Amino acid sequence: MKYFILFGPPGAGKGTQATSMAERYNLRHISTGELLRKEIAAGSELGLQAKALIEAGELVPDAIVEGMIESEFRTVKDVAGFLLDGFPRNTAQARDLDTILAKTGEEVTAVVSLMIPDETIKERIRHRAAIEGRGDDANESTIANRIATYHEKTEPLITYYTTGGKYNEIDGLGTIDEVHDKICRLMDTL
Ligand code: ADP
């Protein structure tokens, strides 16, 4: 199995690009944010635990998202690999992912990073709030804290994966089609 990580700040376009990438390269798209929103909608115990943290722009506990990821790895077999979107989101999750994959003698294949400046993050999230109606997109202080959380907890992963020789960065500015083409040109070499 191949394990691709789609990396980038909130609003970089990961979810948008993931759908076409998953189709083209026969990958299962796993978005931890989407899985968590489903749990919240279902009113599960896990959803209840996650809701307040998501609305505050904080990360949910590592064990919760790691459990969801591992169960997808165990149950999905009929694909060429996985496209992880929104995971890992801090260094502990990245190390745990390495440990999970090592159990089956596997490893992360590559990181595809979509980079956009902080100002664009805010514009895109405001635009998305009007379309998708996500609670964590509608509140300015939540957005600000998500950006802060990204810089503090998630951005160090760039160093983690650069050191591991797996990091590839793409400019996330431009139209959806332009970014899609750039991603495909990179993916075709991986
Ligand atoms: P975005 O990429 O726009 O921030 P996501 O849908 O990826 O949106 O995530 C929404 C929220 O879900 C995050 O702000 C965070 O609270 C929670 N979340 C998603 N993935 C993780 C993760 N791997 N670890 C901890 N929390 C997560």
Describe the structure.
The chain is of the alpha/beta class and 190 residues long. 60% of the residues lie in helices and 14% in strands. The chain has helices spanning 14-24, 32-42, 45-56, 62-75, 91-102, 118-132, 135-138, 140-154, 156-163, 176-187, and strands at residues 2-7, 27-31, 81-85, 110-115, 167-171. The protein is globular. The site of adenosine-5'-diphosphate (ADP) has 20 residues, from α2 and α3.
Radius of gyration: 16 Å
* Fraction of residues in β-strands: 5-15%
Q: Please summarize the sheet with the most strands.
A: 5 strands, parallel
Note poorly predicted spans.
none
- The N- and C-terminal alpha carbons lie at a distance of 13 Å
